Structures are given as structure tokens and as C-alpha cells.
UniProtKB/TrEMBL annotation:
Its main location: cytoplasm. It is an enzyme of class 6 (ligase). It catalyses: L-glutamate + NH4(+) + ATP = L-glutamine + ADP + phosphate + H(+). Its EC number is 6.3.1.2. The lineage of its organism: Eukaryota, Metazoa, Ecdysozoa, Arthropoda, Crustacea. It comes from Armadillidium nasatum. Residues 34-114 form the GS beta-grasp domain. It holds the Pfam family Gln-synt_N. It is found in: Cytoplasm. PANTHER family: GLUTAMINE SYNTHETASE (PTHR20852), GLUTAMINE SYNTHETASE 2 CYTOPLASMIC (PTHR20852:SF57). This is Glutamine synthetase. The keyword Phosphoprotein does not apply. Belongs to the glutamine synthetase family. Keywords: ATP-binding, Cytoplasm, Ligase, Nucleotide-binding.
Length: 371
């Protein structure tokens, strides 16, 4: 069971009346007051936190926004005796909830001694992306996730049993085939509104499991857009009184797990006969399997161990493999890429709860920088 499922108390969470809320949200605010939601990754490296401040101008760039701080002892990021952690605004998005000139700003976290906080993996990722910028690394990440009821039981599943076996659900349509499409649709729109490079969505193999794709994004934008898309997903689902888990194997047994397939290319791979570069990259990846597995979930492989079994469209965590159109391999070359002899590769190993900054960084280190 996932940690969320274990925490299940069987209680129904309180709800409020959204129609009444709407009356207040319609109030017009005197000019030049902007609400800016500062979002950051907490000490778990998996979950997000956010708080708002009023700004007396309309920010056009994150650098115009003040550095802020928070109580790191409440987020697993500092001791109580020295608890201030700093928020450095890095990427600005339009706010799809508050609308107007209001903003969401993704932040990096820094300790009192000006060093990046332990789960601030963006800091090093950005350095690596700058060093490889001339190779124009592109990423496309496929974020799988599972919707849970407020008792943390999979959304729409019978309370005392299981739905019928997998088969009809993937890309399904119909009330008994897919559960929670309202959330998927709402989330898709919020991503487009905010300015995230979301490229699509689909219902997954396990009922109540879904996927959205972000990309292609160059360099650091991949991690930024994916983290903010995750924030928007949790926030939208909250409005529907539904939980989201990124656990890679939320339901043990004959149910697909959740991954974050990462599609990757450099300019040389996208150019004619780039297949030669793709094959070189696969050879480099084959020599660093364990290093990549360690970067592909927040517990250095322990979470992914439950998912990468060699069954349910995965490869074994213990072996490296590559193949054309083979979904049981670590690395898949899409059929179209093999035919056109140019394009990208798909690394199928990252877990759904992996940090996209760590995943994109290690790919660039291995493939572009030969480290
Ligand atoms: P799958 O067939 O594995 O389900 P998806 O359609 O879900 O693939 O996702 C493919 C992802 O690959 C998308 O996010 C897309 O933006 C990305 N992508 C497409 N071309 C490239 C490329 N040249 N380099 C990196 N990513 C790419
Ligand atoms: Mn306080
Ligand atoms: Mn996909
Ligand atoms: Mn998928
Ligand atoms: Mn895929």
C-alpha cells in the first residue's frame, strides 16, 4: 500500500460551499494590488507547499519579486532553533485560480548560510543545463498519477472490492471505464492558462489512473513546468475534494504502477541520421544504470523497486535493456524514430514521484557531458 493508503482514516473531509465562495472571489480589488502565490518543494522532495503575499505592482519577471522566507521546521527543511529558509523566486506563471494579474511563482529554497536547501535540486540542475546548452537538450515527461477518494481509496473503485481486471480502461470512455475526467479536464486548462508546455493527457491502464505529458521543453524549463503542473493538479483536485498520489505502485498486485517516462533528445539526435547519436546515448546509459536508478525516485530506488518488476509494461530494476517499440525495456526507441532515423529516445525507468530536476540532470550528465 502507498503511504497515503496507509494513512487512511476512513474519514470524510469537510467541504465548503463553492457558490458562496464565488461571491467573494468576484470582489474587485483596488488597483495595483497583486496576489502572488510562492510555491516550493518541501523537505520530502515529493510534496509542494505554497503561501501568498500581496505585491503592490504587477510583476513581469520573477527577479522583480522579493526574496521571502518560511518556517523550515514545519516543512522538514530546518531545525526549530534556526528555522528560516529563504524562497528565491525563479519562474513566473499566470494564476489560473485567482485570474487577472495575479501570479504563481515557483521558488528555489536556500538555507540561512546561502547554500541550496537539501531538496533544492534545481540549483545543480541549472548549472548542468548551462554547461550543455549548446547541445539543446529537450525533454518530454509523461506524468502518471492516481486519483484517490478522501478516504484514500482509489477514486471510483468499489469500497469493498476491486473493479474488473485491466483492459478496458486505457484511453477509455464511458462512466464505468474512466473515473475523474472532470479533474483531468480542469487541470489541462489550468496548465494551458498558466503557460505550461502541456502536450496531452490520457486515461491509464489502471482505473482512476491518468497521465499528462509536458514537453518538449529545453533545459531547466522541463523541471519547472512539471513541478508547477503537479502543483496545479493537487490544487485542482482539492477543489473537487479528491486526492492525488504520485506513488509508483499505489495498489499492489495485478495493477499497473505509475511512472514518469522521460523522452530525451539533443539537437544532433533530432537532425538527419540522428539515430547514430541515439545509439551512442543508449550505450552510455547502459554503463550507468545504477546511478540513474538512484536518481529516478526520492528514495534512491526503493520506491521504484515496487514498480520495476519486469511485469506490467516495465523492465526489471536490476537490468538495463533497450529496444525498438518494446515497452518491457529500460529504453525504448519509438517505432517512428527508428523508421525516420532521427528523433528521441524514451527512458521508461523514472518513477512517477521522481524529481524532474534530478532526472533531467543525470540524463544530461551521462549523455551530453560524458560524466
Ligand atoms: P508514449 O507513446 O510513450 O505514451 P507520449 O505521447 O505520452 O508517449 O509522450 C511523448 C512525449 O515526448 C511528449 O511529452 C512529447 O512532447 C515528447 N517529445 C516529442 N518529441 C520529442 C523530442 N524530440 N525530444 C524530447 N521529447 C520529445
Ligand atoms: Mn506565523
Ligand atoms: Mn504516454
Ligand atoms: Mn503511460
Ligand atoms: Mn511512454
Amino acid at each position: 500500500m502507498s503511504s497515503e493508503a496507509k494513512m487512511s482514516l476512513g474519514n470524510i473531509l469537510p467541504t465548503t460551499n463553492k457558490t458562496v465562495l464565488d461571491r467573494y472571489l468576484r470582489l474587485t480589488i483596488p488597483d495595483q494590488k497583486t496576489q502572488v502565490l510562492y510555491v516550493w518543494i518541501d523537505g520530502s522532495g515529493e510534496y509542494l507547499r505554497a503561501k501568498t503575499r500581496t505585491i503592490s505592482f504587477v510583476p513581469k519577471s520573477p527577479t522583480e519579486l522579493p526574496i521571502w522566507n518560511f518556517d523550515g521546521s514545519s516543512t522538514g527543511q530546518a531545525e526549530g532553533s534556526n528555522s528560516d529558509v529563504y524562497l528565491h523566486p525563479v519562474t513566473l506563471y499566470k494564476d489560473p485560480f485567482r485570474l487577472g494579474d495575479n501570479k504563481i511563482v515557483l521558488c528555489e529554497t536556500y538555507k540561512h548560510n546561502k547554500k541550496p536547501a537539501d531538496t533544492n535540486h534545481r540549483h545543480h540542475c541549472l548549472e548542468v543545463m548551462k554547461r550543455a546548452a549548446d547541445q539543446h537538450p529537450w525533454f518530454g515527461m509523461e506524468q502518471e498519477y492516481t486519483l484517490l477518494d478522501t478516504d484514500n481509496h482509489p477514486f471510483g473503485w468499489p469500497k469493498n472490492g476491486f473493479p474488473g481486471p485491466q483492459g478496458p480502461y486505457y484511453c477509455g470512455v464511458g462512466a464505468s471505464k474512466v473515473f475523474g475526467r472532470d479533474i483531468v479536464e480542469a487541470h489541462y486548462k489550468t496548465c494551458l492558462y498558466a503557460g505550461i508546455q502541456i502536450s496531452g493527457t490520457n486515461a491509464e491502464v489502471m482505473p482512476a489512473q491518468w497521465e499528462f505529458q509536458v514537453g518538449p521543453c529545453e533545459g531547466i524549463t522541463m523541471g519547472d513546468d512539471l513541478w508547477l503542473a503537479r502543483f496545479l493538479l493537487h490544487r485542482v483536485a482539492e477543489d473537487f475534494n479528491v486526492n492525488v498520489t504520485l506513488d509508483p505502485k499505489p495498489i499492489p498486485g495485478d495493477w499497473n504502477g505509475a511512472g514518469m517516462h522521460t523522452n530525451f533528445s539533443t539537437k544532433a539526435m533530432r537532425d538527419p541520421n540522428g539515430i547514430v547519436e541515439i545509439e551512442k546515448a543508449i550505450d552510455k546509459l547502459s554503463r550507468h544504470h545504477i546511478r540513474h536508478i538512484k536518481a529516478y525516485d526520492p528514495k534512491e530506488g526503493k520506491d521504484n523497486e515496487r514498480r520495476l518488476t519486469g511485469f506490467h509494461e516495465t523492465s526489471s530494476i536490476h537490468d538495463f535493456s533497450a529496444g525498438v517499440a518494446n515497452r518491457g525495456c529500460s529504453i525504448r526507441i519509438p517505432r517512428g524514430v527508428a523508421e525516420e532515423k532521427q528523433g528521441y529516445l524514451e527512458d521508461r525507468r523514472p518513477s512517477s514521484n521522481a524529481d524532474p530536476y534530478l532526472v533531467s540532470e543525470v540524463l544530461v550528465r551521462t549523455i551530453c557531458l560524458n560524466e
